[in-house]
């Protein structure tokens, strides 16, 4: 990846302590985790851990080798940016007094966000999208004043294969 990070999808047995062992491995080896998301998969016996790892702290091959040594690790895939779809969720409380509220709401609408809560001088909004989209939105909100912000970290799946020349249509 060009940003110095690699996205790893680690399938593990859905058992107590597995996430702690994975995080502990990163800590013991001095590998830096940029973001981490975990949830059960379509098979409730398996969880998917999406880890965005800093490749400056360790080569991705070394990280993968160490992860495979852990018990309960089923499979590991590295997702290249062009071969995957990455999404993230951002919730942010922005200072928005009556004179700036319209600008904050307009930015939220332009980016496809949703207003979650409003106060006298603040607005809480949600935006889901690519990490780059969220970075851009956050940067544009900063001049208004960010009171609180939370991002989920990336989740990712491999891009679906298509036959050359196939036309796709949205369903629904």
Can you tell me about this structure?
The protein has helices spanning 18-29, 60-68, 101-111, 131-141; strands at 5-13, 33-40, 46-54, 73-79, 84-95, 114-118, 122-129, 146-151, 155-158. Strands 5, 6, 7, 8 and 9 form a five-stranded antiparallel sheet that branches. Strands 2-3-1-4 form a four-stranded antiparallel sheet, covered by helices on one side. 25% of the residues lie in helices and 40% in strands. The protein has two domains: 5-79, ACT domain (Alpha-Beta Plaits), CATH 3.30.70.260; 85-156, ACT-like. Chain A, domain 2 (Alpha-Beta Plaits), CATH 3.30.70.1150. A hairpin with a 3-residue loop joins strand 6 (114-118) and strand 7 (122-129). With 172 residues, it is α+β, with helices and mostly antiparallel strands. It is globular, with a radius of gyration of 19 Å.
List keywords for this structure.
172 residues, alpha+beta, Alpha-Beta Plaits, five-stranded antiparallel β-sheet, 4 helices, 25% helix
Describe, in short, the structure shown.
The chain has 2 domains: 5-79, Alpha-Beta Plaits, CATH 3.30.70; 85-156, ACT-like. Chain A, domain 2 (Alpha-Beta Plaits, 2-Layer Sandwich), CATH 3.30.70.
């Amino acid at each position: 990846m060009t940003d110095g990070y690699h996205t790893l999808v680690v399938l593990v047995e859905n058992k107590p302590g597995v996430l702690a062992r994975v995080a502990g491995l990163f800590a013991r080896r001095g590998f830096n985790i940029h973001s981490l998301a975990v949830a059960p998969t379509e098979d409730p016996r398996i969880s998917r851990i999406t880890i965005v790892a800093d490749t400056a702290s360790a080569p991705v091959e070394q990280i993968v080798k160490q992860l495979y040594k852990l018990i309960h690790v089923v499979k590991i895939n590295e997702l290249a940016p062009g071969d995957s779809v990455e999404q993230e969720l951002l919730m942010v409380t922005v200072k928005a007094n009556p004179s700036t509220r319209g600008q904050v709401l307009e930015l939220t609408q332009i980016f496809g966000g949703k207003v979650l809560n409003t106060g006298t001088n603040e607005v809480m909004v949600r935006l889901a999208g690519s990490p780059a989209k969220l970075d851009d939105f956050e940067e544009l909100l900063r001049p208004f004043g960010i009171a609180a912000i939370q991002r989920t970290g990336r989740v990712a799946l491999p891009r679906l294969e298509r036959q050359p020349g196939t036309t796709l249509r949205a369903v629904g």
